[in-house]
Amino acid sequence: MRLPGLPRFPLAQLPTPLVPAKNLTALLGGPQILIKRDDLTGLALGGNKTRKLEYLIADAQSRGATHVITMGSVQSNHCRQTAAACRLAGLNCVLVLNAPNDDPEIQGNFLLDHMLGAEPRIIQDKSRRMAEAEKVAEELTSQGHVPYIIPTGGSNPIGSSAYVAFSYELMNQLIEQGINATRLYAAAGGPGGTHAGLCLGQKVTNAPWKVQGISTEDPEDNIRRINSTLANETASYLGLDLRLGEDDIHVDVGYTGAGYGVPTDECLEAIKLLAQTEGLFLDPVYTGKTMAGLIDHIRKGEIGEDETVIFLHTGGAPSLFAEPKTILSAL
Q1: Active site residue ranges
Q2: Which of 158, 208, 229, 236 has the largest CB neighbor count within 10 A?
Q3: Residue 164, φ and ψ in degrees, nearest 5
Q4: What's the pLDDT tens digit per position in 189-218?
């Protein structure tokens, strides 16, 4: 397998902690809940994309890139972390961001993007992000620069490889702590980079946990198709003789609500509970909805009281500052 030899540009503080959520576990009456703190990767307030960027920035450097172009929503955690990674690597950064209007309020992650010196390109149509990124790349090439495009969320085989490596890290932590985990909860959506890497990593390590995705955006069939395809592309990239089918992708779409970035009542309850039991901040886009799914599965008795469940905290706290009225209403 190619994974140990892949070039990496050091960005993350690893391994991230694996800690018990004792108060939340007691409140819900079991099972034991552990939180894998990928919000503490350390780069520009942390988040799961930092792991992927170690591989992606190294690849950009190997290709002689002068500029990195990536894309996401105006409150994208990935874009904020990419902008910071570019600062450390001495690369210029252009962010293609979709927003409801051409002049979005500078707050939350978007404020941090400005502080990091990234160049924003605002569009309103989300479906045009890649086309706009390619347009920017053409502009930069014509000026004698070398652009490198990172897809939404760092979701390609290079980025997803980071969550195969994550699976080995988590396995080692569980062995050291003498814990047998049965489920791993994580956000799942259209780009699929983290979820695909987790599902492939579970197979590669023969881990005892089931990767349970909670949809934050897309229909179930889309997630299964996109994530299984990306997992298999990642396996090929790593030289693995292993393939996943759509049935290997487990996702619950019951907690998405009205759509991407629109918090549900259950999401807001989860944000409040984690703040007031564990002193942890979840975001209203990804981790809040994922935790809402985990909590509801426990309340419905779908998880046994004697099980141990891991919640992957992927970060995202800066987006809370773009939703103060919504968050306050839940309190």
Answers
A1: 76
A2: 158
A3: -75, -45
A4: 878 899 999 999 999 999 999 999 999 988
**Beta partners for residue 70, in sequence order:** 95
Query: Is the fold of 3-47+155-330 the same as that of 50-153?
Result: yes
Q: How far is CA 97 from CA 119, 323, 327, in A?
A: 10, 18, 23
User: How many angstroms separate the CA atoms of 322 and 252, rounded?
Assistant: 27
**In 116-156, where does DSSP find H-type helix?**
129-142
- Token pair listed for 264: 């549900």
Q: Where are the domains of the chain?
A: 3-47+155-330, 50-153
pTM for the structure as a whole: 0.96
Task: Select 50-153's CATH number: 3.30.9.10, 3.40.50.1100, 2.60.120.200, 3.40.50.12280.
Answer: 3.40.50.1100
The answer to whether the beta carbons of residues 118 and 79 sit under 8 Å apart is yes
Domain 3-47+155-330 has CATH 3.40.50.1100: yes
Q: In this structure, are residues 242 and 200 in contact, taking their beta carbons and an 8 Å threshold?
A: yes
